[in-house]
Amino acid sequence: MNSHPFRVRFAPSPTGFPHVGNFRTALYNFLLARHYGGQFLLRIEDTDKERSRPEYEEAIYESLRWMGLHWDEKPVHQSQNLPRHQDEARRLIGAGHAYRCRCPAERIDALREQQMAAGLKPMYDGLCRDLNHPDDGTPFCVRLKSPDSGATRISDRVRGDVTVSNGEVDDLVLLRTDGTPTFNFAVVVDDHDMGITHVIRGDDHLNNTIKQVLIYEALEYPIPQFAHLPQILGSDKTRLSKRHGATGVLEYRDQGYLADAMINYIARLGWGHGDQEFFTREDLIRLFTIEEINKSAAVFDPQKLLWLNGEHIRAKSAGEVADLFADHMRRMQYLGDQTEAFFNDRRRVVKIVECTQVRAKTLDEIYQ
Q1: 356: three-class secondary structure by DSSP
Q2: Model pLDDT for residues 179-236, shown as the tens digit of each residue
């Protein structure tokens, strides 16, 4: 395991096309790794076999490459770590920190319904906790013996200290009856094995973090530092989604946005440095720290992104914009069979850019 003092990861699931929220997480991890001279790693969390698709995984790579967020080691595929997850679950059982639960799904469902009807939080009642079921071929899941007293505290680098009573935490399922790991268990084992020192992700994972800390403690792993990022909201202050317009990074690329502008804008969704709005990639690497990440939610403003894209177009030389424009036109094939012939005359392309650069807000507007 690498012992570098700052190792972070981006761990998307290939179950849909990556969106702005995903890449805010990727960008923050990347910038912090570069700022502190650490490593930025990539893990593909592909354990959902029914929903994972090769085209979604390729879109993750393509988005990262377009934005220049280059990872430092070979990507890890979570699905390949199954034997390791199962070994660690067996180790926990042997140490008395986990147990085999034989309760059928019907019993768990009925228990949940009874508890909810009584106004109680749905939790496993611990029927199998102290029965020491052997592995004799009877179907079982593996559950963590969560502490039934005391409290668990995480010291979050963005949100401060967060404390939860252990009585509020269920005996978490670690392995399902088919032997596959649950999200929280796989993440802990994988982060440990990858040497992750800082876990930086959206604050929708805060509840998971409390559970994961209990798993870290049971496994006797060192606990990484955590930083939970604020949500990104649409203009109506609800969570950013397709109804707010384009949300995929590659959608913006295909509309003629520059990677530098996207990085600049996405970085500002939850982070700031004084009143400065325009940042180059080099600026961000130099200035970006955890301490300046905001606690409050950020609002995605398409008009501000559009303005910023125009500023980045004007900040580049005509030659630089001409090359970006040519790449964009080739990708979109707006001129069909004439595309290559048109761009063979670079001086003409530069001249077109010089005439339009002062007012264009996207590469598409240069073409129009």
Answers
A1: helix
A2: 999 999 999 999 999 999 999 999 999 999 999 999 999 999 999 999 999 999 988 8
User: Model confidence over 341-354: pLDDT tens digits?
Assistant: 777 888 888 999 99
Contact 357, 285 (CB under 8 A): no
Strand partners, 298: 232
For residue 302, give the amino acid letter: P
CA dist., res. 152 & res. 166, Å (int): 6
- List the catalytic residues: 242
Non-local (6+) Cβ contacts of 242 within 8 A are none
Cα separation, 32 vs 16, whole angstroms: 26
Residue 235: helix, strand or coil by DSSP? coil
Angle between helices 183-193 and 82-94 (to 10 degrees): 100
Regarding pTM above 0.90, the answer is yes
Placement of tokens 């796989």 in the chain: 186
Non-local CB neighbours of 153 within 8 Å, separated by 6+ positions: 161, 162, 163, 164
Please state, in angstroms and rounded to a whole number, the distance separating the CA atoms of residues 64 and 70: 7
Alpha helices in 8-81 (DSSP H): 20-35, 54-67
User: Which residues on neighbouring strands pair with residue 162, listed in sequence order?
Assistant: 154
Residue 175 neighbours by CB under 8 Å, 6+ apart: 85, 86, 89, 141, 142, 181, 182, 185
CA-based R_g, the chain, Å: 24
Neighbouring residues of 143: CB distance < 8 A, sequence distance ≥ 6? 98, 99, 100, 101, 124, 128, 129, 171, 172, 173, 174
Please give the angle made by the CA atoms of 19, 200 and 161, to the nearest 5 degrees.
130
* Angstrom distance (rounded) from CA 161 to CA 284: 27
φ, ψ for residue 245 (rounded to 5)?
110, -160
Q: In the chain, how many H helices and how many E strands?
A: 14, 12
Going through the chain in order, the beta strands assigned E by DSSP cover 7-10, 39-44, 76-77, 98-101, 141-144, 151-156, 160-165, 173-175, 198-202, 225-229, 232-233, 298-299
